[in-house]
Specification:
The structure holds two protein chains of two kinds. Chain A is α+β, with helices and mostly antiparallel strands. Chain A is built from 19 helices and ten strands. In chain A, the strands form three sheets. A four-stranded mixed sheet of chain A has the order 1-6-10-9, with no helix packed on it. A four-stranded antiparallel sheet of chain A has the order 3-2-4-5. In chain A, strands 7-8 form a two-stranded antiparallel ribbon. In chain A, helix 10 runs parallel beside helix 14. The relative contact order of chain A is 0.10. About 15% of the residues of chain A have low confidence. By secondary structure, chain B is mostly helical. Chain B is built from nine helices and two strands; from the N terminus they run H-E-H-H-H-H-H-H-H-H-E. In chain B, helix 2 runs parallel beside helix 8 and helix 4 runs antiparallel to helix 7. The radius of gyration of chain B is 27 Å and the shape is elongated. Classes of the chains: A alpha+beta, B mainly alpha. At the A-B interface, helix 14 of A face helix 4, helix 6 and helix 7 of B.
Chain lengths: 538, 289
């Protein structure tokens, strides 16, 4: 009982060629009268440059035998009688495993693994070449058949070319090349325009993508398909972005006054006057809590001085706010991501006074906490050994103990005051960070959503394969079974893998527990650095 | 049977006709010892040892009396300051004399002591305006209650032992010193001016940080000297407290007498209930020379 891999769509008689190791696989049928003609045709095709790479990986295809298709087939699928030239003569009871020979331009192919990350990495030239060598590094059956699968896909393309031997294919490919470069030119100026925005990383990605889209001479279907998907995904996302951005611009234009009013409300009334009221409240026994009078007065006066300084600066800028809103409108014409990025920047700039006050109070609080920790070590009779990074027992002098005691009383009685002011500014800082985090999340959502891959999965699952399975169904005639090689579509987890990775990074940085721990231990809260976000998406 | 029982050894590495957990009825729990290292307290040595507690209480009440006087401006701050400085030198001299037997002193340690005392003096002088306003906003009732609690903590955790003091202070003794200093800082916020605050906190540092060291040294002197010293202190504190408030003075006297005379008696009486069981099953305590 042997099995032959037979292409679904071949239903003519002739000489069949393919490979016979590791398993019998027929790549196609040549219509020739004698086997010498078939051999000659095969040799001619094999001499072309593209097939060389194939041959050096998997061996040359050979004429396997002669097949005769009976016109009265028992099933709707071809079951030819093959007369093999080499090897043992096959018995009639062979199982045919049918596979689809997809059209070159349909971009369908088989993949033995669902390693979808390959899809998005293949635009890197270096990676591409190393991937080629990757194919030949195994000896096991499975990987060899992996090779075989990919190469069958490739060879189909060549077979079609070899059979017809016309230059139309070549010119079609050439046109494809020129199409890509034309689009690249058109986008060049847009890229330069957005280069100066905060979406710099994104423009860089686009440029790299377009630079990487070159015609693949060897017909590596996987690479081609992944490039195709990546390109159109990016294109679609850009267009989405622009459309939503233009809609937003219209919206902003219509309600100019309302936005101006909202702007003033948030950044002047709330951020400046509100804080001043709260500081005054804290200075005068807030909620009956008796703080140290001198320190509290000093604190509240210095903070109010800082905010008054800021307010003066703000007042000079107020006439320019309509211009700022106009710039925001213009930015949103370039895409909603641009608008989001500008809003992020506006929030950061106009909350600078809060940031400054927060820095001051977090420094004082942090120092107090560290001093308290050090004094605790003092009272226990231990000392921090910097060389070994541990606490060792240590004899302190009486005067050191005494000074430590005095400092401890100072800290114990001044701590509540410092704590109260710190809580105020830490709360404000945390809320600003949360606003920033939500804006960043929306930005990431707009930028990296794999829309095209999803649509492809719905429309034509065979173009994004994630593994194969053999479908067995009984033949129409009754006895015997037909086996088909079908492909699973790519699982969702792989499609969204990049996205999930990005989300994990954002969540890790803005995790509420992490924020709370940083607030309690007196460390400075910061927004996520650009490099964290960029690294996930090259 | 009895001959066999005579042959029984309490070992397991010998094959014997008895089961492994067999115990001869005569020797059951024969090696149990009740109160093996028991040296019962006798009354008068105990009283002598309790003098340390009495001294400590005396210092607390002296301090309180001085504070009240400062607050009511019956005592000038400068007088107190001079008293502190003089008693510092006096105490240091006494300390030197008492530790004559084992002179660990050399020029380096002496200059170190001078340097550190000067440092503390100047630090307190610089910090006294801050210390005055630390708890100025709290109402007086809370201050008295807080101070009482802190002094109680101080008395509880203080180091009354008469053994040779270990080189490094224990955590409890450091905590008791902390409590006393905190209490004096809290009380100092009631005082009218900076000099008074400085004088009071310096006096507190002397009484609660430096005096215990001297007290340790005093416990190696002959008994008569100790008793005399204790008596002096008690009479002094009583005399200082009496003009302020008669009831408090008598309460203090009552507490002193209880602690010095009644408490040791109770302890001696309670010795008969001591029931410590030891045996070969206890963890062995290595004897280090």
């Amino acid at each position: 009982m042997s099995s032959i891999f037979w292409p679904c769509d071949v239903a003519r008689s002739g000489f069949c060629y393919g490979w016979d190791h590791p398993t019998l696989c027929v790549a196609g049928v040549l219509e020739a009268e004698e086997d010498s003609h078939a051999e000659a045709l095969l040799q001619r095709v094999a001499r072309s440059a593209e097939t060389q790479a194939l041959i050096e990986i998997c061996g040359a295809p050979r004429v396997l035998g002669r097949c005769v298709l009976s016109p009265f087939a028992r099933s709707s699928y071809p079951q030819p009688d093959i007369d093999m030239f080499c090897g043992s003569s096959r018995a009639h009871s062979t199982t045919y495993i049918y596979y689809h020979r997809h059209d070159v331009n349909s971009l369908r192919f088989y993949a033995l693994d669902s390693d979808g990350t390959r899809l998005f990495e293949l635009q890197d030239e270096v990676l591409r070449w190393s991937l080629k060598h990757d194919f030949s590094h195994t000896t096991s059956l499975r990987s060899a058949s992996n090779t075989w699968q990919i190469l069958v896909n490739q060879f189909i393309e060549h077979e079609q070319r070899g059979q017809t031997i016309d230059t139309q294919e070549h010119s079609a490919r050439f046109k494809e090349t020129s199409k890509f470069t034309a689009i690249y030119e058109k986008f060049h100026c847009t890229i330069d325009a957005i280069e100066s925005s905060t979406n710099l990383f994104w423009a860089r990605k686009l440029r790299r993508l377009l630079r990487g889209v070159q015609p693949v001479p060897n017909g590596d279907m996987r690479l081609k398909s992944s490039q195709y998907i990546e390109f159109y995904n990016t294109l679609w996302i850009i267009l989405n972005d622009l459309i939503i951005g233009i809609a937003l611009r219209q919206f902003l234009r219509q309600d100019r006054q309302a936005f101006l009013h909202l702007f003033k409300l948030v950044f002047e009334d709330k951020a400046v006057h509100e804080i001043r009221q709260i500081l005054l409240w804290l200075d005068s026994w807030p909620a009956g809590l008796k703080l140290n009078t001198e320190l509290s007065r000093f604190y509240s006066h210095s903070f109010m001085g800082l905010i008054a300084l800021w307010n003066r600066g703000f007042r000079t800028v107020i006439p320019l706010i309509p211009i700022l809103l106009g710039a925001l409108e213009l930015g949103s014409a370039f895409g909603v991501t641009m608008a989001l990025a500008m809003v992020c920047d506006i929030v950061c700039v106009f909350m600078a006074h809060v940031q400054l006050c927060y820095l001051v109070s977090v420094t004082v609080y942090g120092h107090l906490l560290r001093l308290a920790a050090s004094l605790w070590n003092l009272f226990r009779g231990r000392r921090h050994n910097v060389l070994r990074n541990r606490t060792d027992p240590w004899d302190y002098d009486v005067d050191q103990l005494l000074l430590g005691t005095i400092l401890f009383t100072l800290i114990a009685y001044l701590f509540p005051t410092v704590l109260v002011y710190y809580i105020l500014f830490a709360t404000m800082r945390v809320s600003i960070i949360l606003v920033y985090a939500s804006l960043e999340t929306a930005l990431a959502f707009m930028n990296y959503f794999p829309l095209f891959a999803l649509m492809l999965r719905v429309k034509d699952p065979q173009r994004s394969p994630g593994g194969i399975y053999l479908r067995v169904e009984p033949t129409n005639g009754g006895n015997g079974v037909d086996v088909f090689v079908e492909s699973h579509p790519l699982p969702f987890a792989v499609t969204f893998s990049q996205y999930v990775e990005l989300w994990k990074r954002l969540a890790k940085h803005y995790h509420p527990f992490r924020l709370v721990w940083y607030v309690v231990s007196g460390r400075v809260l910061d927004t996520i650095p650009r490099t964290y976000v960029c690294n996930t998406t090259r | 049977m009895s001959s066999e029982a005579d042959e029984w050894n309490k070992v397991l590495w010998e094959r014997q006709p008895f089961p492994d957990n067999y115990i001869h009825p005569h020797s059951f729990l024969s090696s149990l010892r009740r109160n093996p290292n028991f040296k019962p307290y006798t009354y008068w040595p105990l009283v002598l040892l309790c003098c340390a507690i009495t001294q400590h209480l005396a210092t607390i009440f002296t301090f309180l009396a001085v504070f009240v006087r400062l607050k009511e401006r019956w005592l000038d701050a400068r007088v107190l300051l001079w008293v502190s400085i003089v008693s510092f030198f006096g105490g240091y001299a006494m300390y030197e004399i008492l530790s004559y037997s084992n002179p660990v002193r050399d020029a380096f340690t002496r200059s170190n002591t001078i340097k550190s005392s000067l440092l503390v003096f100047l630090a307190l002088m610089g910090l006294s305006p801050v210390l005055r306003t630390l708890t100025a906003a709290t109402s007086s009732d809370s201050i008295w209650a807080l101070s009482a609690c802190l002094f109680f903590l101080n008395a509880l955790l203080a180091d009354y032992s008469s053994m040779k003091p270990v080189r490094q202070e224990r955590l409890t003794s450091v905590l008791s010193m902390n409590a006393a200093i905190s209490s004096s800082v809290v009380l100092a916020s009631r005082l009218p001016d900076d000099l008074a605050v400085f004088a009071l906190v310096l006096f507190a540092v002397q009484l609660f940080a430096l005096f215990p060291i001297l007290r340790h040294q005093l416990q190696v002197t002959p008994q008569v000297a100790q008793i005399l010293f204790t008596l002096t202190l008690c009479v002094l504190s009583f005399a200082l407290t009496l003009p302020l408030s008669v009831s408090v003075a008598y309460i203090y006297a009552g507490i002193s007498i209880t602690v010095t005379f009644v408490a040791p008696g109770v302890l001696v009486w309670a010795q008969k209930y001591k029931n410590e069981i030891r045996g070969p099953w206890d963890v062995a305590v290595p004897r280090l020379n």
